[in-house]
Design goal:
By secondary structure, the protein is an alpha/beta fold. About 55% of the residues lie in helices and about 10% in strands. Helix 12 runs antiparallel to helix 13. The chain is elongated.
Length: about 300
């Protein structure tokens, strides 16, 4: 499920569960929406809010409804990017919001997006609210890694697990978001994103699909390595100045290696599997160091491909 003119695509069963609970008159006050990154957890939370705050879907979509509050990672004023954590100051906005009277005496909805980013103090602040919620309060918490939350938060929430999106839903969303895409590109994005429309759109936005295909073409020629072709590709990668493009490309490459490890595990002796695991781990470490230390991306990419060649 994601947002196409605020239209629900996918996660139908999850929405049915919410509607059934609401109709029963025993709606649980706190829900934990779990699942991998980019499958539409936050957008589903908005749809739930729109359902509960009936008749005000446009205000909910714009996050301007007076009876709805959204908490997420704040934006860094210098870089314009989201910070890695949600500080306690953000979490305390929830208690301030809930002290207000609902506009029409109805429900109030709080959405906490990427709750795994809440720091310890922020989690404790949210826990106090979940433990003693005001009447007619609905708290929707989206999380990619539930284990990052306090056990006491998890135990007080009703869990709503969300599966990766089905290929048909991915196709619908991609067609609506980028109708110019070729059939081959749509198929590639669906195959590479693992049911995460967020990651599929990130691949599309970063324009790395041609670079990834060229990378695979070079790897297909191993153990023979076309050095001039590799350096030409590495130059193209280095010229893409944004970090997101490099991150997406390296994520695709490491995922390709992860799948290779899985294939090795089902078809080869243990020693070969161990070698594949070491290669996967070393490749991830190479890219991680390059990212953290802002090292030369061209050199990091060449080193990773060279390591793969040595292992073939």
């Amino acid at each position: 499920m994601t947002e196409t003119a605020f239209h629900l695509v996918g996660h139908d069963e999850a929405m049915r569960e919410i509607k059934t609970a609401f109709a029963s008159g025993r709606m649980h006050h706190a829900w934990l929406l779990t699942g991998i990154e980019g499958i539409g957890k936050a957008t589903l939370a908005k749809h739930i809010a729109g359902f509960v705050l009936a008749g005000a879907e446009k205000l909910v979509a714009a996050e301007t409804h007076p009876d709805m509050l959204t908490i997420r990672r704040p934006t860094d004023d210098k870089t314009g990017e989201q910070k890695n954590i949600i500080p306690v100051d953000e979490a305390l906005k929830v208690s301030t919001f809930l002290r207000k009277t609902a506009t029409h005496g109805g429900w109030r909805v709080v959405i906490i997006d990427d709750a795994h980013a809440l720091n310890r103090n922020a989690q404790n602040a949210i826990l106090k609210i979940i433990e003693e919620p005001p009447p007619r309060t609905l708290i929707l918490i989206t999380v990619t890694t539930p284990g990052a939350l306090l056990p006491t938060i998890r135990s007080r929430c009703r869990v709503l697990p969300l599966a990766p999106l089905e290929p048909a839903h991915m196709h619908t969303i991609l067609h609506a978001s980028a109708p110019q895409l070729s059939t081959d590109d749509v198929k590639a994005l669906i195959d590479l994103s693992g049911g995460s429309i967020g990651f599929a759109l990130k691949i599309l936005r970063s324009e790395v699909l041609p670079l990834y295909r060229e990378t695979l073409a070079i790897l297909d020629g191993l153990p023979q390595l076309d050095i001039p072709r590799l350096h030409k590709l590495a130059d193209q990668i280095a010229r893409k100045a944004d970090a997101e493009s490099f991150d997406v490309l390296t994520a695709l490459l490491t995922d390709r290696l992860r799948r290779a490890v899985h294939d090795e595990a089902t078809a080869t002796p243990v020693g070969r599997v161990d070698l594949a695991l070491q290669l996967w781990d070393k490749t991830r470490a190479t890219f991680a160091v390059a990212d953290r230390a802002h090292l030369d991306r061209k050199l990091a990419f060449i080193n990773a491909v060279t390591d793969i060649r040595a292992a073939v």
